[in-house]
Write a structure and sequence with these properties.
By secondary structure, this protein is an alpha+beta fold. It is built from four helices and twelve strands, in the order αβαββββββαββαβββ.
Length: 209
């Protein structure tokens, strides 16, 4: 159950910087078409991230730093470097976890929970989550971002999250941040930086050493 929570916690209200002068998106058709074209040509993606976890029982947020790497069709590495070492690799229907040197592996095909979470994380990174019928969607924008608010209609997801917001930079339509509001009243904000699209990936990036 601990691993379910940790992986779900990766997958998922808008930041103060984005949440200024929010209005309804003026042209959702053009946005979705442009995002579709970007996702078609994105074969690899790398980025750094800062994650801020707000818990009701704690005064200050828990701040973590790390990096991600993605390669089509479904390979993803999510790695925390600070303040602890924790890496998840999803590849070929397998989830491998390295928790500070302690390794474990799971077969996604034998577990619908892992399978659904894998699809959710990758579709969020790619931007293809807009096609997911398990979420109702509201399209907004600010001066610098297109923002999509997603509310789960799936019963399983409703048990964990109430809303997920994805902000796409207007300059290049890359994901700038993901914020998740959880059903327990907690929230997780992941802000991405130094995003590199279609740069070569290290040969062993999707292998745990």
């Amino acid at each position: 159950m601990k691993n379910y929570a940790l992986i779900l916690f990766l997958a998922f209200a808008i930041t103060d910087a984005i949440g200024q002068d929010i209005k309804a998106m003026s042209d959702t058709t053009a946005f979705k078409k442009a995002l579709f074209e970007i996702s078609k040509t994105t074969n690899t993606l790398q980025a750094n991230f800062i994650q801020k976890k707000v818990l009701r029982v704690m005064k200050n947020p828990i701040i973590s730093e790390g990096s991600i790497a993605f390669q089509k069709p479904n390979s993803l590495r999510w790695s925390y470097q600070k303040p602890f070492s924790y890496t998840i690799v999803m590849k070929g229907g397998q989830i491998s976890i390295d928790d500070a040197g302690k390794s474990s592996q799971y077969d996604m095909s034998a577990n619908k929970v892992f399978e659904d979470i894998n699809k959710l994380i990758i579709s969020s990174v790619e931007g293809t989550i807009l096609d997911d019928p398990k979420f109702s969607k509201t399209y907004l924008e600010s001066a610098n971002y297109y923002i999509v608010e997603l509310v789960p209609s799936d019963a399983f997801m409703k048990d964990y999250i109430t809303q997920m917001n994805i902000a796409f930079a207007k300059t290049d339509l890359q994901v700038g941040s993901i914020k998740i509001l959880e059903s327990q009243g907690n929230s997780t904000l992941i802000e991405f930086s130094d995003t590199r699209v279609n740069d070569p990936l290290p040969k062993d990036v999707f292998e745990l050493k």
